[in-house]
Amino acid sequence: MGLFEILCGIGVVLIALYYYFTSTFDFWNAHGVRGPRPLPVFGNIKDVMLGNKALGFYLKDLYDEYKNESIVGIFLRRTPVLVVKDPDLIKDILIKDFSKFADRGGLAVHERTDPLSQHLFALESKRWRPLRTSMSPVFTSGKLKEMFFLITECASHLEQYLEKLVSKNEPIECRELMAKYTTDVIGTCAFGIEMNAISNEDSEFRKMGRKIFAASWSNYIRFRLANYTPKLYDLLGYVLPQREVTTFFIRVVTETLDYREKNNVVRHDFVDVLRELKKHPEKLGDIKLTDNLIAAQAFVFFLAGFETSSTATSQALYELALNQEIQDKLREEIDEEYTKHGSNLIYDNVKNMNYLDKVFKETLRKYPPVLYLMRKSTSSYTFEDTKVSVPKGQNVFIPVLAIHRDPDIYPEPEVFDPERFSEEVAKSRNPIFYLPFGDGPRNCIGARFAVHQSKVGLIKILRNYKVEPCEKTQIPYISSAVHQFLLAPKDGIYLKITKIKRG
Questions:
Q1: Could you count the other beta carbons within 10 Å of the beta carbon of residue 423?
Q2: Residues 6+ apart with CB under 8 A from 435
Q3: Kind of pairing between the strands at 373-376 and 395-398
Q4: What would the pLDDT profile of 285-336 be if each residue is shown by its tens digit?
Q5: What's the rounded Cα separation, in Å, for the pair 156 and 67?
Q6: Could you tell me the pTM of the whole model?
Q7: How is the chain split into domains, by residue range?
Q8: 147: confidence class by pLDDT, cuts 50, 70, 90
Q9: How far is the C-alpha of 473 from the C-alpha of 172, rounded, in Å?
Q10: Contact 300, 474 (CB under 8 A)
Q11: 109-366+438-476 — its CATH code?
């Protein structure tokens, strides 16, 4: 073969690749939707793919650039994605026309390569719906009230552990501190297992929690393969061994279920729900209930329960350290509640702390647990009051971080101001503009539990300790670009914590 033929062959391959990567780029023009010009291979997410920016921050930039557009069309590589900004359209997607957008979208389930990916957060609506219905009773306010003693017990252990740390007179990494606490809460409340993350530095559960969310390149590459080349990722399941995390959780859940069955242990908790499903799979209709599917539900509850709560609580401590007057006012409310009701904190005491509620809501406003919501259309759909129609299987993103930091909705969004959530101010705002846990039928199932365990942890710390910035405190807050879904700090949250001397 001569040089000319070789060059022609290379040219044909390059043209074919160019066509493949650009063949969808007329999609949004054909649907009358504005958006930025995409690039071959990257689409509109070059910086995201190169690890320079989290997708949630790219969506914020896009939101600001197309300020007057209700919807914007982008491409993740060559896949068209609709970014929805208008509050009425967001409400249609999440609530009014939920049945047309019941699938999560943007997350693939890889049953062989990653058995734990078939969890409630990612599952398609056919399997999601009966599982959600079966698990919802565990997350009622009545159940939360029953578990309150267990939560406060973990918070007391946190307080004792913190006293030891404070005596060393060194900066404390608060994200790790709170992760130990929330790991123990999830363990005792949901699984009936003493995880001992606070008292034991070698706690297996805490080790696994660190591995899951480690800002490592192996996690980053795995995420990229799973989401950008899902077919290749599925093929790897035939040759790659299961991850340590996967093996650990499947083993722990299987052993816990077997132990309870053999010893007739009943706690009416999350594990008991899974146990009932295993005994009565007919409750899920024609869905095949496997051990991996059961383990995946336990896995995601552990995952979401410890990580989002520990991150949010440490972010609250960070803002309170930078805003001493807010911290003082919150401590005053906590002291008042203790003065009224004595030292035995009960469920209703926490509910009565209105300023604490405002502080935590403002934390979740500024640092939403999830940067954007993902949905996928289950049928063709035309958006009301627009001429825009999308086909079945269309991915839709709702940019939560961008909405929460829109100065037209929340003036001076970088300022930490709990009074944004006073009753009067909140009433003047469209409620759909506050989405820390999503909205509608597919909102976060454990939101009430997450908020409550976080509040109890904050109360226990702030009652007896003052939180301040130190030389290792990152000011301003810098987010990690490796974490694509979560607003995680780049280098941890280090603060100075000192015991309050009471007269």
A1: 8
A2: 368, 373, 398, 400, 403, 404
A3: antiparallel
A4: 878 888 888 888 888 888 887 888 999 999 999 999 999 999 999 999 999 9
A5: 47
A6: 0.91
A7: 109-366+438-476
A8: confident
A9: 10
A10: no
A11: 1.10.630.10
